[in-house]
Amino acid sequence: MRQSLIFFCLFLFVLAIPCKSESPYKLKPTEDYLILGAGAATGISTYFIFNKDRSLSEERIADLSRSDINSFDRSAVNNWSPEAADFSEVAMWLSVSALIPLATNTQAWNDALTIGVMSAETIIWALSLPQLSKITTSRSRPYVYNEMVDESYKLEARANESFFSRTTTVAFASAVFSATLFDAYYPDSPYSKPIWVGLLTCASIAGYLKFQAGQHFPTDIITGAVVGSFIGWFVPYMHRNQRNDSMSFGIFPATDGIRAAMVLKL
């Protein structure tokens, strides 16, 4: 009974927030096909590469030395906590909570397809870019250097997939994306700043717990935060109804594959 009353009060609270009547976003077929297609192609191709055995050998693990790690990242090798890794996933999911008020926004329901496409683009790139980086860098995770961690964990393929943090990337992409959409549909809301602070805090906690878990170095987490934040901002920006045309984006075929380019008009 108490839980039902709380949810009912939250529902009334959301209804009291003034919402925007005009749609702030629109689909742009050419750009959407390119963004979704390139993201899907990246994700699918790296998935098949991921399925190959890229685990470390016992000899390679024995050759690793803490002294090979830069001083900024070295503190991570002393951490190990599977429980922290689990809680990191919870914090990551909380980073999308600003989308909940949109469930009661009429204009958001009218833009359901647009929001769905933007969400798909955000998640695809937030998953694909770290995955691509993990394959190309093959950086060993901090716990591989930890003598207290069981050897069985170090022999897993994922032990060689440290750079950069996928969980942190998804968390920051989701946080920035969610808060940006909240601002777009509730432009006069007094809760904008608390929502931004709350979501970015959740995303930061997700990254910090990955550090405590011994799964990522600080540079893995910082890179994930920067890349994720950019994705979370960029996707809504590309779909704004009244966009500043000083920036344009395109994906072009090339002899060695595809290339993406961003142009700034000064």
CATH class of the domain at 79-264: Mainly Alpha
- The end-to-end span amounts to 59 Å
Number of DSSP strand runs: 2
Could you spell the SSE succession in H and E letters?
HHHHHHHHHHEE
Shape estimate: elongated
Q: Give the helix tally.
A: 10
CATH architectural arrangement of the domain at 79-264? Up-down Bundle
Average pLDDT confidence is 85
Low-confidence stretches: 1-19
Q: What percentage of amino acids are in beta strands?
A: 5-15%
The largest beta-sheet arranges its strands as 1-2
Bin the helical content: 55-70%
CATH topology of the domain at 79-264: Vanadium-containing Chloroperoxidase, domain 1
The chain-level structural class is mainly alpha
Q: Measured on Cα atoms, how large is the radius of gyration?
A: 21 Å
Biggest pleated sheet: 2 strands, antiparallel
Question: Layout of helices and strands, plus pairs?
Answer:
Layout lengths: L1 H14 L13 H22 L7 H6 L18 H13 L11 H5 L1 H26 L13 H4 L11 H20 L6 H21 L5 H21 L8 E8 L2 E8 L2
Antiparallel strand pairs: 1-2
Helix pairs in contact: 2-6, 4-8, 4-9, 6-8, 6-10, 8-9, 8-10, 9-10
